[in-house]
């Protein structure tokens, strides 16, 4: 059930103040130390940030997709590491359980995820199966009342912090592609679960990723998400659809923050005796950035409303992910250009923003994968219309 207007307004205002007063001043520290300070995580838990989208009956706020987008526009104005700290609990880490979990699974995990006591992570990508998720090779073999998992997952967000992994594994090796893939809820403490060292990344420091290795990992049959084999890939795609809406809103908020800083710098930086904001070639970059972001915000909101109406949003989610991530990249690049040499050194945030923005076009489906999804949907619809 949607929040009333006053409550939603209060939540957005709280997020806006928290981002401005607490998170933005800590960005340089997070980038240098490659971690979000523990006291910030505690504050986020107390503010309910870990359960924004988890249903109220399990301790969360149960935000609709549109409400989540409005909140993420604000949250996105801070370093992506802060969103990532609790983003998996609200997105890909929990939504598989929300959408397809049994009541017992929901009761067992969602309340602790909503409170932030349990961090969820989504283990889909593999060394040889990134964009081609249907080709994953991690296997789960039935052994009495257990399944035995073996395989490696790569670049798993929040893996070093996670207490629960939603793991995609092949249960039927006689079926090629996605049909033989199932989803399992695997606790990090389970014997046979190994987490590799934290990766050293170009940007988004403070948002850890690592390999997760399953070696003869025995999990009870009750760990099968929803209690049914062969549903894992379908669940994963639905989870990614909503997740792409959420991160698209974050990309939009981040790009809006970058544009604000671009304009502020252009107004104070003097060349030839006047602010560089008066130069038409720079005004073109500002104008193009603003047009990108007006379109991005409108696209995310309309797609989120479609999701809330129960419509199939596979096409819309792909459009949002493609457009907002590419727009963020364009805005971050223009920002460096407007700053000139100052944009290439660490004295200004422009350099860090550029590094942080680059990942947007890769994770949760590359831009090229989004293009394929969009094209296939458009062609399929055209064929259907022709009969």
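-> sequence recovered:
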């Amino acid at each position: 059930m949607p929040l009333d207007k006053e409550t939603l307004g209060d939540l957005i205002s709280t997020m806006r103040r928290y981002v401005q007063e607490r998170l933005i001043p800590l960005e340089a520290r997070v980038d240098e130390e490659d971690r979000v300070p523990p006291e910030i995580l505690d504050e986020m838990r107390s503010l309910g940030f870990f359960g924004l989208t988890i249903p109220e009956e399990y301790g969360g706020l149960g935000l609709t997709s549109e409400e989540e987008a409005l909140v993420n526009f604000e949250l996105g104005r801070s370093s992506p590491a802060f969103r990532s700290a609790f983003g998996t609990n609200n997105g890909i880490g929990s939504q598989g359980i929300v959408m397809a979990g049994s009541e017992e699974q929901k009761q067992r995990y969602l309340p602790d995820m909503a409170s932030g006591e349990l961090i969820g992570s989504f283990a889909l990508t593999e060394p040889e199966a990134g964009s081609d998720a249907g080709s994953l090779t991690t296997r789960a073999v039935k052994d009495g009342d257990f399944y035995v998992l073996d395989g490696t997952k790569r670049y798993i967000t929040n893996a070093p912090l996670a207490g629960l992994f939603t793991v995609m594994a092949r249960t039927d090796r006689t079926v090629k592609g996605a049909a033989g893939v199932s989803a399992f809820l695997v606790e990090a403490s389970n014997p046979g679960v190994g987490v590799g060292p934290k990766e050293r990344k170009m940007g988004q420091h403070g948002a850890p990723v690592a390999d997760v290795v399953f070696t003869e990992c025995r999990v009870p049959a009750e760990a099968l998400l929803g209690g049914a084999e062969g549903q894992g890939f379908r669940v994963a795609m639905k989870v990614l659809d909503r997740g792409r809406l959420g991160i698209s809103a974050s990309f939009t908020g981040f790009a809006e923050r970058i544009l604000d800083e671009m304009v502020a710098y252009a107004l104070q930086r003097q060349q030839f005796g006047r602010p560089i904001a008066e130069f038409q070639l720079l005004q073109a970059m500002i104008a193009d950035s603003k047009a990108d972001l007006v379109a991005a915000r409108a696209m995310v909101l309309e797609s989120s409303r479609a999701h809330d109406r129960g419509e199939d949003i596979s096409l819309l989610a792909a459009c949002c992910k493609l457009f907002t991530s590419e727009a963020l990249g364009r805005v971050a690049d223009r920002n460096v250009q407007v700053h000139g040499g100052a944009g290439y050194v660490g004295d200004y945030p422009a350099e860090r923003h550029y590094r942080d923005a680059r990942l947007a076009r890769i994770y949760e489906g590359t831009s090229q994968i989004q293009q394929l999804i969009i094209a296939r949907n458009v062609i399929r619809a055209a064929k259907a219309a022709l009969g």
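The first helix runs from residue 5 to 23.
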